Amino acid sequence: MSSFNIENFIKDSVRELKAYKVNEADQHKKALKLDANESNYILGKNIKKKYADYIKDTLINLYPDPNSKNLLESVEKFYGIPPKNFIFGNGSDELISIILLSLKKDVTVNIPSPSFSMYEIIAKYNDLNAKIIKLNDENFDLPDNIALIDDKKLKNLYFFSYPNNPTGNHFNRKIIYGLLENKNNLVVADEAYIFFSDEKSFLHELPKYENLIVLKTFSKIGLAGLRFGLLFSGDKLINEFKKIKLPYNINSLTLSSIEFFLKNFDEFEKNIKKTVKQRKNLYEKLSTLPFIKVYRSDANFLLIKLNDEKYKVKFDNFLNANNIIIRNFTGGMELYYRITVGTEKENKKLIDYFTELSESL
User: Fold this and answer.
1) Can you give the residue range of the structural domain that contains 274?
2) At what angle do helices 91-101 and 235-244 cross, to 10 degrees?
3) 179: helix, coil or strand?
4) Would you place residue 28 in the very low, low, confident or very high pLDDT band (cuts 50, 70, 90)?
5) How confident is the model at residue 342 (pLDDT cuts 50, 70, 90)?
6) Confidence band for 20, pLDDT divided at 50, 70 and 90
7) Do 236 and 335 have their domain in common?
8) pTM of this prediction?
9) Residue 52 covered by a domain
């Protein structure tokens, strides 16, 4: 009997991919988990009770209502954008997939490196040409000549994480505006981390640029478990995206939850301020350690780099031995690590661990 040949069914672009790996903590030890850019602040008892009361009558026997009048009005009030110009996604990943699924095959997808890995992964399994833009080594900004390289005759889509993940910086806005001026370009501003920044959102630019797409999420401020994202764009683009967005893609409990939390957003604003304060403290303390370089950040994480590759094995072993989970990288970035800004207690623990290690090197 002949064996099953998976090559007959699964396309090459999928088989050549590596699955996205999520770090797992040692279940037998209490982990210091600072790898996923989640918020480690837990809601207080009072708000939890109000939340439970709010969602208790949500009907889970019926399909969810994506046109919930209350939620649409809440989002419109929160962002100042009419409902006709946004759609909901099951996290930003689904929205990125919707964008790329809609593209013609001759559109080149331009992705800064380093940046959010799902841009390239989703582009590749949609059989699109993904072109990598190498960021400047010193400041992780876009190359100054990107607009000159930008061929006016070719069709391009650009993804810009703003602030960028994993570097924490904002790209030069003038360069982004230059790309938007070319109507053969689509530009995606992914603002997953902008809550932690003083930088202005690109949302107010939507009336000016029909080729601009803005992504938003609440995952980084305390609602990662709800898997909810938003895509904003002008009439022409949004009408096409609506055609391929799956019906009922957001479950009823998430819709009710987002509605509740937008009405009680002050709870998150407190934690955002705490995170920004802790980021400053963590940056200052880690910057005193001689074995690492720490990069400034406008997000809820810090990027660090080992100052010498001879520290690599010992550092990795130290992390494993103490069940410290931070994000490490491959592809020429083996000496870089991304640390989520945790609570004051978690950050102090991390600083103590790293100080101990520093003294032993």
Assistant:
1) 7-44+267-360
2) 100
3) helix
4) very low
5) very high
6) confident
7) no
8) 0.94
9) no
